[in-house]
Amino acid sequence: MPFTLSHPAAVLPLHKLLGRRSSISAMAIGSMAPDFAYFLPGIHGLMTHSLAGILIFCLPAGLLAYFIFHLLIKRPACLLLPEFLLSRLRGQVFGAGTLPSVSIWVLACSVMLGAATHIAWDALTHRNSAVVNHVDLLRSVVFTVDGSQVYLYKLLQHLSTALGLLVLAWWVQSWLTQPATPADSDLLKDTNQLEPPASLKVYIAGGIFIASALCCAAAGFLHWGFSLERWLFHVTVAGISGFVLALLCYCTAWTAWTATAGAGQRGY
Fold first, then answer.
1. At what angle do helices 59-68 and 104-125 cross, to 10 degrees?
2. DSSP letters of 193-220?
3. CA 227 – CA 230 distance, rounded (Å)
4. At what angle do helices 83-94 and 185-194 cross, to 10 degrees?
5. CA 226/CA 236 separation, integer angstroms
6. Do 215 and 235 meet the contact criterion of CB atoms below 8 Å apart?
7. Residue 262 and residue 172: Cα distance in Å, rounded?
8. What interhelical angle do 228-265 and 198-222 show, nearest 10?
9. Can you tell me the distance from the alpha carbon of 128 to that of 3, in angstroms, rounded to the nearest whole number?
10. What single-letter DSSP state applies at residue 149?
11. Rounded CA gap, 16 and 38, in Å?
């Protein structure tokens, strides 16, 4: 499969086309939702990568992930960023309400549209997809490496993964070149009070990446002897899982701390 984190690249032109009739964060989450099955026990990836799976799994899972991101992850994760990024996001993340002002209908459609782009992308690069099974060209051998045949669909899989990451990198670079909107003094004061000290930010971020690395190492050891492709799959899934779980632990602790601090300031 194309790398999960490459999939949001497919929704960028759609959001540009639809504008306010779509939610970029909901579409990005929806574009990754079919792969959530690989991180959850008891859910089969074939189901989540189907048209029925868009409604049965991707829509509810995507909406849940959307609300978790905006209500729990967004603000504390933003505070771990370097100042040149935090200064650009401070007004957008902390200046408005916790949830974007978007109707549930727009959210649902955005999640499903994002999931549809994922399934369409995988249909051209997945071994047993309906498109690959019916298009002989996609199953043609492009070249051979150490006796192993590399098919066109597999080559497209890796090339499209790289292209997706490049598109996302270009999008971030374009965003960085745009003039930043400075946050007002009151907002700057409030976020400075919430921000962990610089040294603590380094330890927190380091701990999150160490947790991810340890999960990668454990998965690599447990799946040693598998084919390279399967081994990389398990290592990647474990690494992303460790990163997300560690990030959630930090975000939960930060949310609890700010709630307690706020209650103390109000005299509760």
1. 120
2. HHSPPHHHHHHHHHHHHHHHHHHHHHHH
3. 5
4. 110
5. 14
6. no
7. 34
8. 150
9. 17
10. E
11. 30
CB 239 within 8 A of CB 216: yes
What pTM does this model have? Answer: 0.90
H or E segment and range at residue 195 = none
Spatial separation of the C-alpha atoms in residues 89 and 86, rounded to whole Å? 5
If you ran DSSP here, which 8-state letter would residue 38 be given? G
DSSP for residue 267: T
Alpha-carbon distance of 1 to 128, in angstroms, equals 11
- pLDDT tens for the chain, 268 residues: list them: 558 999 999 999 999 999 999 999 999 999 999 999 999 988 998 899 999 999 999 999 999 999 999 999 999 999 999 888 888 888 778 776 678 889 999 999 999 999 999 999 999 998 888 899 999 999 999 888 777 888 999 999 999 999 999 999 999 999 988 877 666 556 666 676 778 888 899 999 999 999 999 999 999 999 999 988 899 999 999 999 999 999 999 999 999 988 887 544 544 3
Tokens 């649902």 identify what position?
A: 108
> Which among 70, 51, 23 has a CA at the least distance from the CA of 115?
51
* Strand pairing category for 141-145 and 148-151: antiparallel
DSSP result, 121-137: HHHHH-TT-HHHHH-GG
Task: Please tell me the distance from the alpha carbon of residue 30 to that of residue 161, in angstroms, as a whole number.
Answer: 17
Question: In terms of Cα–Cα distance, which of 1, 10, 65 is closest to 33?
Answer: 65
Q: Which two tokens stand for residue 124?
A: 């051209």
